[in-house]
Structure formats: C-alpha cells, structure tokens
Amino acid sequence: MSKYKGVIVGSALFILLSFVFGFHYVKSEIIKEKVASFKLLAISVTTESVKEDVWNEHLNVIGNIHANQSVDVKSQMSGQIKEVLFKSGQFVKKGDVLIKLDDALLKASYKSQLAKVELARTELKRNRKLLKNHSVSQNSVDKLAAQFNAESAKLEYISTQVEYMKVKAPFSGHVGIRKVDVGDFINSSTAIVDLEDSSQQYVDFSISELYLHSVQVGQDLQFKSDAANDAEYHATITAIEPSSDRNTHNIELRAVTTESVPLESGMYVDATLTTSDSNTVISVPSVAISYTLSGDTVFVLDTSTKQVSANSVSASSTSTSSYSQDSEKSETPFYEYKVVQRTVEIGPKQGGYVGVLSGLKEGDVVVTSNQHQLKNGGLVLVNNQRPLVTHTQPSK
Q1: Rg (Cα) of the chain, in Å, rounded?
Q2: Collapsing DSSP states into helix, strand and coil, what is residue 391?
C-alpha cells in the first residue's frame, strides 16, 4: 500500500506543479499581449505655425516728463512782501505781477535822486549859456555834463530797483502752491511759487553710449505710465546730447510729445525706443517656449506622422472637458502627430512673441499648450477649434 501511496502523492504533486507553472506562463503571455497592444492616448494640444519676420530692435528705458518751461519764481530784490496778487493753481500771463514788495524807502531815494538830477541839469544849462559869452571854461562845462550823466544813471538804477520790487511772471503758465505770505521778508534765494508752462511736453531719458549708432533725431518713442492707466503715448526724438557722461557713459536724449499727455512734469514713464537696427527671426508665441536650466526648448509636430484620430473624443477628454464638448459638436476630424523636442536659441521679445534665432525654420508647427505632459516622440491630438489666445502679432 505504501508504494501506491507514494505514486499517488507524486502524481498529485506533479499535477499541482504543472498547474502552477502553466498558470504563470499563460498569465505572462496575456500580459505580453496586452502590453504589445497597449497604446497611450494622445495629449490634446493647440498649435501654431511659425514664420520668418524682420523685427526692429527695441530699447526699454525710464524717462521723465518735462514741461516746455518750468521755474521757481524768485525776487531779484530783498524786501518785505506787501501784496500777493495770485492764487495757488491760477493761470497767469507773461508780465503779470505776482507779488509786490515794500518799496517805500526806494521811492524816497528816487525822489531825492530826482532832485539831484534836476539840479545837475540846471547847472549844466546855465554854464552852457555862460560858455557862449566865454564866462566859463569848456572844462567846467564838461565836468557838469559828466556829473549830470552820472546823477541820471543813479536815478535810472533806483527806478529799476523800484520796478524790481514787483515780481512778475517770466512766461505764461500755471502757478503751483504759493510758498510765501504777506509780511514775509524774502531775498533772491527765496522760492515764491513754481511756474509751469505745459503747452509743450518733453520726455527726457538716457541710453548707453553703445547704442548711439542706433538712434537718431526723428525716431519714435512709445511711453506709458501707471498714473495714466498704462495708456500708450508717442513722442519724437528732437535732441541728442553731443557728449557722453564720463561717469555713467550714458547719453541724454529728449523727445517731444506728439499729443496732449495727462502727466505732470517730473513724473516717470516706461518708454520703448524703436531703433534703426533689425533682426531676421522666427516669430514664435512666448507660451510655446519651455525654459529649463539645460536650455530652451519647443515641441514641434512631425507632420510626416499625421493620421486621423480614431478616438478623437475620448483622447481630447483626457486633457480637458471643454475640448471634448467641442469635438462632439464638430464634424471636422482631429489629427494625431508625433512631436519632436528641439533646443532653440532665444532672441528679442515683442508683444507676446519671441524671436527664435536658431532651432526652427519657417513653416514649422509648434505646440502652444500642455507641453508639461509631453515627451520627445509622444503622440498629440491637435485641437485648434478653441485656439490659444495670444497677444497681437508684433508690427515690423
């Protein structure tokens, strides 16, 4: 009996082992078959064809607004203020009297000097008559004439001082907030009020001397300010400083505004100067560029792998539900492509676009969305029914 039991146990063990190994073999074959037939769903993306453009170079600078004329009004004479004849913020005309100083002492000096002039004139007139009768010498008459001229000059000097006791506007414009009051004693260094003539405005800015060859009188300057809600204004370069600053090696430029600008003198603006230099670049939306430490890259469609997607709807739904809704409504088929990742050299930037200097050619189609889900050689489903909204293509 023991012999038959051994045979039975051995047979049972053989059958069990055969079943186990057979199960694992069939399982591995099924897995291999499934893996071989498995295909990753294509990633839904948007694309844009790139083209070659000629871009003018731009310089971004900080400028500040200047009025046509601006001055701190001051007196040429010292004295106590007797009258203030303007209001803060008022528009004044050239020659309007702004303040009057106490001129009582000068007027008294004027009267005294006037008497001396009259006396000198009388003496001169009398001696000229006597000269005709040879009662006085020519030398005496000449001395009296010189004395009369000297006294007259003193009178004119005092008269000018009296006139200077009235501080007048040197040009037409708006005054600011007055800094003096009646009774204040002022001198030639005392600021009375700020006077601005904003009939014409300028933008002053500076550039590195390295860019001197790129600028010239007549070029356009675009500028904007947060204070004006980033509205864009234009100015035309009218003057270039003939020398470079020896410390900063910058060159000062001035541009005159071509329109009324709601900005005050002294305010800063962000300005862009279009130079005379130009580059031939491949214009690419900035969102198509992937910036990495190892280099800047883009994903480009391999158009030779184009094929109609059999499951456009299901593929697009793995990316965004909005694409799935569009694909259900559209009768236009979606196409699948393989993508190639390329390293590119980045150049200038303008209006939401980047100029690529190398790595792309005109006619290449770049991916503009979902790049983080892609890999080199991966499949994409092109869905441009809801195209990427980018900035306006930059002007040449």
Answers
A1: 45
A2: coil
* Domain residue ranges in the chain: 43-55+280-382, 59-66+201-278, 74-186
pLDDT, one tens digit per residue, over 3-38 is 677 777 777 777 777 777 777 777 777 777 766 655
Q: How far apart are CA 70 and CA 194, in angstroms?
A: 7
> Which parts of the chain sit beneath pLDDT 50?
312-330, 387-392, 395-396
Place of tokens 């005496």: 140
CATH number of the domain at 43-55+280-382, out of 2.70.180.10, 3.40.50.450, 2.40.30.170, 2.40.420.20? 2.40.420.20
Q: Are 270 and 225 contacting, i.e. CB atoms less than 8 angstroms apart?
A: yes
pLDDT digits over 77-96, tens only?
999 999 999 999 999 999 99
Q: Tell me which H or E stretch contains 28.
A: helix 2-37
Cα 41 from Cα 61, distance rounded (Å):
49
* CA dihedral for 59, 64, 65, 71, sign (positive or negative): negative
**Residue partners of 359: CB distance under 8 A and separation at least 6:** 298, 342, 343, 344, 345
Short-list 351, 57, 65, CA closest to 235: 65
Round to whole Å and give the CA distance between 129 and 141.
Answer: 10
CA pair distance 331, 182, nearest whole angstrom:
85
Architecture of domain 59-66+201-278: Beta Barrel (2.40)
pTM across the whole model = 0.58
